[in-house]
Amino acid sequence: MTGVTSGPARAPFDFKSATLPLVALLLKTTDQVTLEADLARRMAESPDFFSNDPLVIDLSAVRDSEGVPDFAALIALLRRYRVLPIAVRGGQPAQMAAAVAAGLIEVPDLVIPQRSEAPQVEVREVIREVEVPVQVPVAAPNTVVIDKPLRSGQQVYARGGDIVVLALVSNGAEVIADGNVHVYAPLRGKAVAGARGNTEARIFSTCLEAELISIAGIYRTTEVALPPEVAGKAAQIRLVGEKLVMDPL
């Protein structure tokens, strides 16, 4: 009997690169009692605000301190509020060693990238026989356009570009972009611009009612009411220093 030779077996898995939006917790104290009290106060109005979001603990603000957080207690505390600590960055050696011993992954300090410039097209105009180069910006190639309502639990991420939403963003839905976020409809869920550190990114909405807005890691929740001049109205949000500034449109 003649044997039948099959082709190479297909590999049962592949490794691929992936991008995962993370929540960052910037610790400003290593005192567990203070952390528990302040977190309880902030989350009192929205105890189910997070939905098992992955989180990185940022120790850069306490790096010069000799204090070492109780990472086991901190991880348990954060999980009660439905965030999942997976990594740590920015601490001094003793802090990082304690974090790794508690099961966190050490990640390198992130460098906030400068805003990438759109590709430029050079147009030359001749005025009185003098050539004047004029640069005309070209639309970003990675813009994501969504024309259907986003329901609670849905998330859309525009990697490397802007996101444009032409329909309702419901409570519990998320729109995330490395660039700008444009919502030409009521924005009631979460809007995250500059997800990878672009401090020049902005958020635009024709009806601002968001439960969370964030630019380059600086965020604001419904714990602080929106100013009356922008609440439910057309507005833009931009980052000035470490403060979110809201302007009516």
TrEMBL record:
<comment type="similarity">
    <text>Belongs to the MinC family.</text>
</comment>
<dbReference type="Pfam" id="PF05209">
    <property type="entry name" value="MinC_N"/>
</dbReference>
<comment type="function">
    <text>Cell division inhibitor that blocks the formation of polar Z ring septums. Rapidly oscillates between the poles of the cell to destabilize FtsZ filaments that have formed before they mature into polar Z rings. Prevents FtsZ polymerization.</text>
</comment>
<comment type="subunit">
    <text>Interacts with MinD and FtsZ.</text>
</comment>
<keyword id="KW-0132">Cell division</keyword>
<dbReference type="InterPro" id="IPR007874">
    <property type="entry name" value="MinC_N"/>
</dbReference>
<dbReference type="InterPro" id="IPR013033">
    <property type="entry name" value="MinC"/>
</dbReference>
<keyword id="KW-0717">Septation</keyword>
<feature type="domain" description="Septum formation inhibitor MinC N-terminal">
    <location>
        <begin position="13"/>
        <end position="85"/>
    </location>
</feature>
<dbReference type="InterPro" id="IPR036145">
    <property type="entry name" value="MinC_C_sf"/>
</dbReference>
<feature type="domain" description="Septum formation inhibitor MinC C-terminal">
    <location>
        <begin position="145"/>
        <end position="246"/>
    </location>
</feature>
<dbReference type="InterPro" id="IPR016098">
    <property type="entry name" value="CAP/MinC_C"/>
</dbReference>
<protein>
    <recommendedName>
        <fullName>Probable septum site-determining protein MinC</fullName>
    </recommendedName>
</protein>
<keyword id="KW-0131">Cell cycle</keyword>
<dbReference type="InterPro" id="IPR005526">
    <property type="entry name" value="Septum_form_inhib_MinC_C"/>
</dbReference>
<dbReference type="Pfam" id="PF03775">
    <property type="entry name" value="MinC_C"/>
</dbReference>
